[in-house]
Design a protein that fits this description.
The protein has 384 residues and is of the alpha/beta class. It folds into three domains: 78 residues, DNA polymerase, domain 1 (Orthogonal Bundle); 187 residues, 3-Layer(aba) Sandwich (Rossmann fold); 54 residues, Arc Repressor Mutant, subunit A (Orthogonal Bundle). The chain has 18 helices and twelve strands. β3, α8 and β4 form a beta-alpha-beta unit. α1 packs across α6, α9 crosses α10 and α11 packs across α12. The protein is elongated and about 85 Å long. About 5% of the residues have low confidence.
């Protein structure tokens, strides 16, 4: 691909609104004319001579009467959105490697060079408590290991993965199927804002375009395309995550799956993919080792080194015997409050009150339906 002139960008953005143009036809036009401005000003006959079928060529010519390149740039500026063409610096290099990269990528926030070390995480929109806990745990660990977490901003596993990366203070990228002046789903408006402030929300779709059923499978090729590998946490056979897996395999990217219960419909796709050769993962180390990134320093290790150097007297918070007993009953697997009460001997009211306080302190997390887990490296260390 040729290096794109910065003054040519407005024409690429205008061309990106032409229906049915796509990556293959854009390449043909670029090879024939050299610049977007020349494509934009070309005659119908010259466009057709470049190998573009009559219908698409006419779409392009007719678009000139309705689209103003300068107005397109002004609209992006008002929306706080930038755009990058595949011939410009700043376009994700890994995305250029896929069979059909988008000619133009719209960005709210910043895509940085360090985002080349990224892992996608996808799954069902209706996770179980186990799926919620697994996605939060893995996404938090991956983010703290220095990897950017990429997902699709959907309800369920996507949103949990984004929030876990944000809560770890690390980068995450949301790839969406709509224009960046729209937030979909609306429930993730605050999450999208947080992502754009410390990472990026990206799309191949121009402003003002709402998603439809065909948008999401195509969007998913960008999720896998921007990443070294894709982690499927929990997904049934009809989950949209199957499209992300399909694209990842087509792009020669790694596929990882979290195993699930043989009785759970939410784990049928992941369990089948494991049988077919996907890498079974239980923790972030499984992923890092498979990607040859085990030597990447974990954020938690760097924080520990800094704490040791800067504040050698820092100590873990003290626990009373009841707190210690309750925390010892929890692990990375969800445990129902009734089981906690039975194993600790605490009264239900006392256990409930203590669980609430521990959750406020960030030591534990409720993952749904009164199931609790310990939150990884947070909180005090319980010794025997």
């Amino acid at each position: 691909m040729q290096q794109t002139r910065s003054e040519d960008l407005k024409y690429w953005i205008a061309l990106n609104r032409t229906r049915l143009l796509g990556a293959v036809r854009t390449r043909r036009l670029e090879a024939r004319f050299g610049s977007a401005e020349q494509i934009w000003r070309a005659s119908l006959s010259d466009i057709k001579a470049a190998g573009i079928k009559d219908r698409v060529a006419r779409n392009l010519v007719e678009a000139r009467a309705m689209i103003c390149p300068d107005d397109e740039m002004a609209s992006l500026e008002r929306a706080g959105v930038t755009a990058v063409h595949w011939g410009q610096y700043g376009y994700p290099p890994r995305l250029k490697e896929i069979p059909d990269p988008p000619p133009v990528l719209y960005i709210k926030g910043q895509v940085l060079p360090e985002d080349e070390l990224s892992v996608a995480m996808v799954g069902t929109r209706n996770p179980t408590g186990y799926g919620r806990a697994a996605s939060a745990h893995l996404a938090g660990e991956l983010a703290s290991s220095g990897l950017t977490v990429v997902s699709g901003l959907a309800l369920g596993i996507d949103g949990i993965a984004h929030k876990a990366a944000l809560d770890a203070g690390q980068r995450t990228i949301a790839v969406v199927a709509n224009g960046l002046d729209i937030v979909y789903p609306r429930e993730h408006s605050s999450v999208a804002r947080r992502i754009s402030e410390s990472g990026a929300v990206v799309s191949e779709v121009p402003l003002g375009i709402r998603p439809d059923s065909r948008s999401f499978p195509r969007r998913n090729r960008l999720i896998s395309g921007m990443s070294l590998g894709t982690v499927v946490v929990e997904a049934g056979e009809t989950s949209g995550a199957r499209w992300t897996v399909h694209h990842a395999l087509e792009q020669d990217r790694e596929v990882f799956c979290v195993p699930g219960s043989i009785f759970s419909p939410a784990s049928r796709l992941t369990n089948r993919l494991i049988k077919e050769g996907a890498k079974l993962v239980e923790n972030s180390t499984d992923i890092l080792e498979e990607l040859n990134l085990a030597s990447v320093p974990r954020q938690s290790e760097m924080d520990l080194a800094t704490a040791t150097t800067d504040s050698p007297a820092a100590e873990s918070p003290a626990l009373d015997p009841a707190e210690s007993r309750l925390l010892s009953a929890l692990s990375g697997d969800p445990v129902h409050i009734d089981d906690i009460v039975r194993s600790t001997g605490l009264a239900t009211s006392e256990a409930s009150s203590m669980l609430t306080m521990m959750e406020l302190k960030g030591w534990i997390s409720q993952v749904g339906c009164m199931h609790y887990v310990r939150t990884g490296s947070h909180g005090p260390v319980v010794t025997a």
